[in-house]
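# nightly structure sweep
# worker-07 picked up a monomer target from the shared queue
# config: single-sequence mode, recycle default, output format = structure tokens
# input follows
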Amino acid sequence: MALSYSLNFKKFNLQGRLVLEKEGEVVFNRNHFRLKGKGANDHGEVIHFTDIKEIRIEKDLMIFVTFSKDKWILSKFGTSFEQFLEDFYKLKNEFFVDNLFMKMGMLAGEFDCHAEMINQFGKVINKGVSSIQFYEQSIVIIPKLADAFVIYLNFLKHHEFNEESYELKLENDAGVKVIISKLGSHFEEAESIMDMNLEKMYQKILSNLNLVFNGFPIQTLLKLAYMIRNGRCVSLQSLKKLDPSLAQKILEVSFEGNNELEQKIQFLRSMDDENELYLGMTFENNGSAYDVNIKAWYLCALPNLNTIVIGKSNNPDENKSFFFRIVMEQGDPKEKLPGKVLEVNQCMVLFDYDLSPIHKDKNELRKSKYRVALLRLAFLRLFRRSFLGYTDATNMETFKNKADRFFTQAKVLHKPVLRHRQIFKSTLK
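# output follows
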């Protein structure tokens, strides 16, 4: 039987004019809900969870705005408003957790808790009563009356279990902090699961590094494992500081059998004295712990040209080089580069080194597993906006000509691009 609630609903258009007002019901489905009036012939209007841009709760009202700029007001739930909100967020969060790449690996444990977030600007956001799910490579927090969010172990900067206050403190590479409290009698179990997941992740990475870079000190490889984790790119400069001979070996492995790409990289780096080359790799075990397949990729940063270039490196058949702006409208590319590198790392790790979601037309991806991510992941939307184009030229002169064209595009925008605060600014008053 479908989950439904009786209510009144109003719809306003972009100009704020009332275009619809009915008494009826809301009927929930797995990825949407239907607002329909009374009567068998009223089929109602379907609102997909992906359509909702912003929500506000006022006493016994739910007010939300869609990406198409329609404003809806739901009211007169009677005594069932709180239960409606719980079911609404439960279904909405289940949908997004399943479709926004939050579940990384197998579920290891789930506990009730209280969650509080401090965003990168220092604003404290109380998420209230929640559940926390520990997966092998991610931690998903699902508030009872707010949107779910995730901390990936690959991008976990710091964590601490405070045994005096019985709190778990998390901080990711983007500067977002999360405080988990009220774990109750499950505090020690949660700590054990967290430690186990981190240990498994680093042990697997370390084992593969030891196979590929056999002969280097285990302590050096352990530091390398923390730097690259599950496929993040690391600057060549940082690798040289760790161990110059290991950095040279990583270079050889990254471009093995792809001399043509090495020449392209040399050309790109010659265009900017302040260039930085980043290298990333991940490993696949082909049915055996001792049979390792390496996926290597590169990021060449050219801040003076406001450009980064990325691509796969150790497969001669993968000869596409993708060009992106660092800064869209204003700002210093050198200052913005760390944020851009984080965006690229998130895309590469979350999407398993599939480059299609960062450059293909959204119509091509409409029926793919990236459909919801294209709509809802802010870092992916912003990164796609900075895409200049790609070249798969094998001839060096052709490659240079196309690269020069992208460098020119990166300097001057041919049309205005909305900044982050304009894209996601509040529309509910």
